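Suppose a colleague, Dr. K., hands you the sequence of a protein chain of 182 amino acids and asks what its three-dimensional shape might be. Before reaching for any lab equipment, you can write down a predicted structure in token form. Begin with the sequence itself:
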Amino acid sequence: MLMKTSNLLLMTISLMVALSSCKAIKTPADSTAGEFLTAWIPSAPAVIYKTRGDYQNLVPVIMNETRTRIVSYPDPSDLLQGDQLMKPHKLRKGFLLDNRGINEQVAFLNISYEDYSKLATPPNIYEMSLMILDKEPLTELYYCGKRSDYKDLIYELNVLIDRGLTNCRKANLTPMSVELQE
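The predicted structure, expressed as tokens, is then:
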């Protein structure tokens, strides 16, 4: 019992020291002229995709693996960065660059970014599930590293597209199949 207690105490102290030494952001009141604020922020993945319809202005949500319920959806305020809507960016050959965090389980709602961003709160899950326009909208999806890997994201992704996306990992979009046993 004493050994478990001392191990727990040691781990707690180690965690406190580690967390207290990670402070990288200073408030403006703490900063002096000429200091730069730095923070460790993980980079978002560079995800590009094609859809079987024109969904670039429609709000994406994430479904569970069986596509029977919504497991992730944006708050209306999440669709804006400043006064700009976070719609996907058009790339070459019909590809779109995701700006919302989609994956293979994406579905699109029948509401535009603009209209959704004006809502005070997101619709409840039941209402949102009734708004699903397409549960399997993707025809292609590629993971092309981290956004921070690129100096000129749009230009470099277009070059990758022109070269056949050989440096990107293609997602498996095979629809779920159910085998019946006799």
